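thought: user wants a sequence for this fold. calling inverse folding tool.
action: design(structure=
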């Protein structure tokens, strides 16, 4: 997107504003799709990465299926036009109402997290006279070597079951008349930038699948989850879709089972930016130890609009939309929220900026708008794709409508 286009969108829709590029989303989906080649596979878009309806609909138009992580995301998937048989339902701590809905709909797989959850699904299926399709989420005790807050495949993480527990549970499910074990599932984390952990997780899952199939289990698919990372910093090394598929496919191929992928960030992350306007500037008091003058650049977007920097110390490149001439300054780019952690970028070099200038926060298409909140009674930003509004900005009336 050109600076002129970004400036025009900010003028038309206001800021903070999420701006997405549909062509880039399509292109990235196709790249992942073609990396899978001729091996049977289904790409289930991880709705949690960006749940705005127009984006989820776009993924469906691309040919994706859906990975829902809550009852709300199941409803979004249905609203976007996905059939229940195209939805996998994942997540720790599924509520009775969520499980009931998934069983009644007959989703493609409920990725079960514990023996207790499987028991609850079985009881619901029996009462409904249905056969619930269940996959077991394994926890392979593999370090994703990503940020600890987004690593999910270690034995100490709350997700999934050990291989031994999964094996025992699979045998129980096999005997149950109201359950069909359709596959296994693993997801060891997000923003993974090395192939080895992904390959190890796939190997662990495929090994168990082979054992279960030898015992007669009628598995249909192996779900490797999501996790493929993107370069947030210039020059950061990441795994390409082909390297990814080449790493995970060999053990899956040995089983002959359909490969299921749940990518989120890799598809939508680089296709979205957050536009924000500078609302104030302050020079920081001089450091008694000396050093370069440092500025606070106070933006109208903060942690309520893009939580990742405050939540995980995540890095997003931040640039002036129309850089002014002059020497760079050392800046902390902060938001207006009443928290010191409300910082979009620390110790960045920016050209001189003035109040009213636009900044663009890059690679904000995934885990951006979905994590926005109303803290400080702030309205959730508007979203635009290809220059058209896809979600309007909240108003104070929206914010107050639930208060009694
Ligand atoms: C179970 C599951 N599947 C898929 C994803 C999507 O991951 P990513 O956006 O890193 O591809 C997540 C996100 O953490 C997840 O928890």
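)
observation: tool returned 404 residues.
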């Amino acid at each position: 997107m050109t600076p002129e286009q970004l400036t025009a969108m900010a003028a038309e829709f206001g800021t903070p504003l999420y701006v997405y590029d549909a062509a880039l989303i399509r292109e990235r989906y196709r790249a992942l799709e073609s990396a899978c080649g001729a091996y049977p596979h289904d790409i289930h878009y991880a709705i949690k990465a960006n749940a705005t309806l127009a984006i989820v609909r776009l993924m469906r138009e691309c040919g994706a299926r859906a990975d829902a992580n809550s009852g709300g995301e199941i409803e979004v998937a249905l609203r976007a036009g996905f059939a229940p048989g195209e939805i996998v339902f994942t997540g720790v701590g599924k509520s009775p109402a969520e499980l009931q809905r998934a069983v009644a709909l007959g989703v493609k797989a409920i990725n079960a997290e514990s023996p207790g959850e499987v028991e609850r699904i079985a009881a619901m299926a029996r009462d409904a006279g249905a056969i619930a399709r269940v996959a077991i989420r394994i926890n392979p005790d593999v370090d994703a070597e990503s940020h600890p807050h987004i690593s999910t495949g270690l034995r100490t993480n709350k997700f999934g079951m050990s291989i031994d527990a999964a094996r025992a549970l699979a045998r129980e499910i096999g005997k149950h008349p109201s359950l069909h074990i359709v596959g296994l599932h693993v997801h060891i984390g997000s923003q993974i930038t090395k192939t080895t952990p992904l390959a190890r997780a796939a190997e662990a899952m495929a090994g168990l699948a082979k054992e279960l199939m030898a015992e007669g289990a009628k598995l249909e698919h192996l779900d490797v989850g999501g996790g493929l990372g993107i370069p947030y910093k210039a020059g950061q090394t990441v795994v390409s879709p082909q390297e990814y598929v080449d790493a995970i496919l060999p053990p899956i191929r040995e089983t002959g089972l359909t490969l299921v992928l749940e990518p989120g960030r890799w598809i939508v992350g680089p296709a979205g930016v957050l536009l924000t306007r500078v609302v104030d500037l302050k020079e920081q008091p001089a450091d008694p130890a000396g050093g370069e003058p440092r500025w606070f650049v106070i933006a109208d977007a903060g942690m309520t609009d893009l939580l990742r920097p405050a939540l995980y110390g995540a890095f997003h490149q931040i640039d002036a939309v129309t850089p002014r001439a002059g020497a760079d300054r050392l800046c902390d780019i902060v938001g207006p929220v009443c928290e010191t952690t409300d910082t979009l970028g620390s110790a960045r070099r920016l050209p001189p900026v003035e109040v009213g200038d636009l900044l663009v926060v890059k690679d904000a298409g995934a885990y951006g708008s979905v994590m926005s909140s109303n803290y400080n009674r702030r309205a959730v930003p508007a979203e635009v794709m290809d220059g058209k509004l896809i979600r309007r900005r909240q108003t104070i009336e929206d914010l107050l409508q639930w208060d009694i």
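thought: summarizing for user.
answer: Here is the designed sequence. The chain is about 30% helix and 20% strand.
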